[in-house]
Amino acid sequence: MTTRAPETDGRRSAAAARRRAREAEILAATRALFDERGVRDAQIEDIARAVGINRAIVYRHFSGKEELFALTLVGYLEELRRDLEAASVAGGTAEERLARIVTAFVDYSLAHPAFVDCAQTLMRRSGPELLDEISESALFRLGRGISGCLAQLSGALEDGVRSGDFRVQDPTLLANTLYASGLGALQLARVGILVMEAAPGVPTVGTISHEQVRDHLVVSALALARGR
């Protein structure tokens, strides 16, 4: 008695491998387009053209544009996590460690403006909207990517609390707050403009540098961690 199960399993494995390879091609093309043009100008048609397929095939692999963008963001987050980990393990005091982590976050984001755009785009969506537009597996990967970065922040805060250097009631909440507020401040760094009043009711603009934004985020993080 013979069976054809091994042959069938082999075909399934090969098909799954081809599917993963095509998904990786699409994500790589999306990332390249983000880095070249920015998130706003990235179109599904351009992504498909870069891979040499039509847009219908893109939608066979991803539920929609939001899922494709979310999984592209995962790639940025994995790179960012490695930078934050390197900053975290470099030693020093709790304050020095936190300052390095925040600096690494800012430096990566300034070097990859599409990361900031992509992260902000997804943060504008409510939880229910994301659940409707992105598959559970993609949401899991996105959540794992974000939590991996936040763990570096919250871990540094928790260690600082244990050492007596920081006074933080909820390190997880503060880590999430620093991440979200950091993304907003980085948009300010990109624009490079401060709005102020030259006189009551008379607006004017000034300038702000990347270094000023970086220093502000570090000082703010340390002040919040110290409980001041």
UniProtKB/TrEMBL annotation:
Domain HTH tetR-type: 20-80
Tagged with keyword ATP-binding: no
Protein's UniProt keywords contain Transcription regulation: yes
Entry's transmembrane regions: none
Pfam families: TetR_N
InterPro entries, per database record: Homeodomain-like_sf, HTH-type_TetR-like_transc_reg, HTH_TetR, Tet_transcr_reg_TetR-rel_C_sf
GO molecular function per UniProt: DNA-binding transcription factor activity; transcription cis-regulatory region binding
Keywords annotated in UniProt: DNA-binding, Transcription, Transcription regulation
N-terminal signal peptide: none
PANTHER family tied to this protein: HTH-TYPE TRANSCRIPTIONAL REGULATOR BETI, HTH-TYPE TRANSCRIPTIONAL REGULATOR RUTR
Protein name, entry field: Unannotated protein
